[in-house]
Amino acid sequence: MKKFTVVALMVSALTFGSQAAFANETQGEGFDTLKDLVTKTSQTMQQQAPDTTFAKTMIAHYESSIEIAKLELQHGKDADARKFAESVITNQTKDIATLKAWLEKNPAAK
Fold it and tell me: What is the reported pTM?
């Protein structure tokens, strides 16, 4: 279980880093902390297309989580952590498809 906790913490840390990179790419500003990311996302959602900001940010978040989960499957030994990684890949792949489909159906929100 200790390995599972470490993997979960790594997923969280790397996922938030990816969100910051996404935000940096789309908004032209860097983020030093998750709090900065959340604050900037909140401001963007109030000023621009909130639904699109949400969808794009969540896609980036899920894509990062999937990459980390794949690393767990390549290198991890703990059965619980590997099972969790598999569920992350399955569930978040579906969520990405849902969000991308929504973006396609709502071009005005882009």
Answer: 0.62
